[in-house]
Amino acid sequence: MGVRLMDIAKEVGVSEATVSLALNNKTVIKEETRRKIWETAERMGYRPNVIAKTLVKQKSNVIGLVITDFANVYFGQFVKSCVAKIVENGYQPLIASSQDKFSEEERVIDQFISQRVAGIIIIPPTSSNLHEVTYLKSLETYGIRYLYATAHYTNVDAPYVMVNLKHGSYLAVKYLLDMGHRRIYFLGAHPQQIPTKMRFEGYKEAFAERGLEADESMMIRCENADFESSYVETLRLVKSGVRIDAITTINDIMALGSLRALRENGLRVPEDLSLIGYDDIVFSDVAAIPLTTVHQDIDAISRRSVNLLINMIQNDIQRNDKILIEPHLVVRNSTGVCSAVRDIQAR
Amino acid sequence: MGVRLMDIAKEVGVSEATVSLALNNKTVIKEETRRKIWETAERMGYRPNVIAKTLVKQKSNVIGLVITDFANVYFGQFVKSCVAKIVENGYQPLIASSQDKFSEEERVIDQFISQRVAGIIIIPPTSSNLHEVTYLKSLETYGIRYLYATAHYTNVDAPYVMVNLKHGSYLAVKYLLDMGHRRIYFLGAHPQQIPTKMRFEGYKEAFAERGLEADESMMIRCENADFESSYVETLRLVKSGVRIDAITTINDIMALGSLRALRENGLRVPEDLSLIGYDDIVFSDVAAIPLTTVHQDIDAISRRSVNLLINMIQNDIQRNDKILIEPHLVVRNSTGVCSAVRDIQAR
DNA sequence: TTGAAAGCGTTACCAA
DNA sequence: TTGGTAACGCTTTCAA
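Structure tokens for the assembled complex are given below, as produced in the milestone run.
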């Protein structure tokens, strides 16, 4: 099935080697022969077999990309950005999902090794920051370069590119403090998980900087880092009757969940209280109230990741850089001066 | 670099063939030999080279998937669903984006052919329904099975799986008519494009069924099928001062854009007018006002697509099925009885 | 139960 | 400027 070099060779009446040389535009081949071979190849609908090519060349131009969830907008944007950069550089992307499970990450990476990819960019599952990462040995055995993106395993000494989560959270909370807010609730997931942990450190830092002490009880632990959990916890908070100046969440979807709960209880954002998200996915601008949020430069993460990986591939060396991208705050309409402060000023 | 069958063979003191047989668990090999080979393979960190395997077996288990945009939630969900089903069936997914451009679709498919994939699921660019699709001949030359999903080229006789767009729109408009709405604006893209065209046909059908004639001037052509364009056109509509009973859009993002324009002008949804989206992406439920929308069963599209493709691959035959999935209306909070009708009833 | 050898489609080296 | 041939890592057939 299909056309092979041999078929073209027979048709033109030359050897396989000549056809190969001609199709790769080696100038050793006489102009006329080359033209004839190209024409015949075209006419026969020849498509080179990269499988065979890779086998004989003993190197692939495939870059693997392990993400956790195709349906998550944030990763969708990351994939889009990465793929563009990989293609630009003449490599071919191969994307797989770990479904946010470490066991699947292992399976997928084993598959990539069997594929003999040149390098891999790994986005680890959100839930796990500690793991016995056994596949690294295999990657080294097969000379496959790798790095982690958007997060990393704390117990593994490997290169990564991610956003300075702590600083992002610091910026958000500092801004809220500047606006007079004090009772700032923090909605996160498990306090042990990196995404939550790092952000809460930023939260505390902002308070400390002002000589204030963060009230740990304002760190609300949500079951999952999603719309529903955030909605539920915000509802509970509102019903409890405590004073809430502001709420920060560890991603934008959670902020939207929170927003829904607030609005359903007649609380106005930002008049009654402020709300800040995290990530700046497209939908934060599309929400009921355009969300103030911490912008993570996805493009920068992907650019640095791809560049570092390709650098490792081309120099045939596994490096160990740790790259932190600095986030910044995007102020939109979900935040304002603390209502308590406003009341005082109004007098 | 890396471990080969030969390395294991040398280590154990048997032939390559024996190692191959043993690792593939052929029972011809003596239990003890097999065990020893497995142990050694494990110890040496052996990973089979699928490149070589594919070459010799002369068949691949890779299914290509061409989408238009990784950052689009709708396709993100489709990819997720497809990938799960492809993996379940023991195949390996290979995903690429056409960036919504036909030229890129061609490039990507050529790449897939060079990869000698077993079959391809193609999501065509939204903008093009007519195209000289030259790659089909190549696909046939190399015996690669294919089908279109979520849309198709009208001038090409090839299998496809998509939602009955016309019927979805019909359901939405019929519902609005039932609620007493008459001045129903339709926000779409170019009237020639399939997604817009089919939906507007459903719109007209719902009117016709009631013996009403659809007013073509209520079909508003947006520059793009996105948030911004929809926002702009809705704004223009509102400012023009015409009476608006309801608005339907061809996707949920557009509905959100529309919603923003309405709210900014003090119009309440659904009290003052109703709004219906299309697609039922996650965010329609997360919007300021949970959106009434037409649900497209992405899971069904992907299931039917993958099943049909695998059927073709395994029976080694290119079929030509056209599969239409029936959509249904999901009523949430953005729709209600027409205010004009309510006023009358209130008297 | 095991081994030798041919072959998959391509490239690359050496000869012609 | 071209051709013959070995090699890439694996599977498979046939013989031993």
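Chain A has a mean pLDDT of 94. Chain A has three domains: 5-55, 60-163+297-325, 165-296+330-346. Further analysis is deferred to the final report.
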